[in-house]
Amino acid sequence: MSIDLSVSNLINIFFIAAGIGICSLSILHVGSGMHIRKEVKKYFQIFFTLINIYISMHFIRMLLENHTGTAVSISIRAVTFIEFFVSGLMIYMLSLLILFIAAPGKNGKLINIIFLVLITVHTLGLLIDQFTDFYYYFDEMNVYHRSRGYAMSNIMHILMLIQNVFLLIRYRNKINKKLASALWLYLLSPLAAIALQLGFQQIQFVILATVISAAYLYFVIIRIQTEKYENQQKEKDRLDTELSMATRIQAETLPNIFPAFPERDDFNIFASMNPAKEVGGDFYDFFLLDDTHLGIVMADVSGKGVPAALFMMVSKILIQNIAMMGNRPADVLKYVNNQLCTNNHEEMFVTVWYGCLDLETGILEAANAGHEYPVLKKAAGSFEMIKDKHGIVLGAMEGSKYRSYELQMEPGAKLFIYTDGVPEATNSANELFGTERLVHSLRMKETGSPKEIINHIDSIVKDFVKDAPQFDDLTMLCLEYKGHID
Fold this sequence. Notes:
elongated; alpha+beta; about 15% strand
């Protein structure tokens, strides 16, 4: 099988080879793109594959022309049908891209239906042409010729082109300027190539114009995608930096230097907080109201992350400020609740256990606003859960009232308070750590110091959870009352 090696055909072969090469490299580039969205990858892989098929079919037709035989006749008709059919798919794919970018709203589905009808009619016309030669025909030497109805084979392309031009003009404000330029180039460059081809009828300028404009369109879209990814990364880095700073600020607002009161020998206290996210909603606090009274707080804000952390900061400051005025625990919760209910449009709330320990008598006066039960170890006993009476959570209902109660702590007694992240810690089998396991674990280390007890519980919980993700903040506080030593 030979091929006409005239200058025009050599130029066409060069254009075809260049087109296939550019499309193939583009397909490889699409596949290796790390930051390209899957939808974009899939689109351009199909798009460039269609162009490659279109060019290849045209080249095969060139090879088969001027050769006779039934097999050649069948083959050349088949590849020409594929060439025409794929050319319709190419303009349809471009139309989908422009439709997606323009985003015409509720009209988008209707326009796509019109596109599907056009390509269906185009395909039916090509099938009918196989029996009528209405669009094109082949002579006895299997040379391609246009028929009287050839212009009709381009009706679909023209109508889609008109619709695409309308979309580009109508929704130009929505489209990135660089992308709009690339789309206009892809639409208009084949028309310019056709005009040029009128003077050089044997040279297929359309092929090269289509491939180059398609490749340019692709690289513009990839560049836009890359810039978007880089901007997102910069924003992510900025947010990560701010979250890290917020984590440090939050940690610094909680008492975190131990021993907390090295000059005091009448009590020992230790606490820890491990947030589930960068910043958490749990908090603990302890502060001397005067030389003989110690305030102790354990709280858990609804939600997670930055909103919970902000609400936590407000709650912590309010509790300490009102407590420092000498108010009883029930009154502290009442006043803080009313303050939090003011302008609480996000409807956030916080559970709080607040106690005031008289360091001279060992009497612990406390109040509970929907928080977990405290666990108390008497001097001569083991850890036992104290099922105190709960009031409503703070921030839920203005005017709520709370009830104080008293616990007697003898020298050697220990108090353990915590947030629900401890009993609700969940392992991979979806099993909760639970309060029974918590009390049992506390009894295993009940002779230890507050720091040893908390480290022990932390270790037990981590061993229980293992590789399961941490869903909630893990916050604990342990107080040992030693009393006055004469």
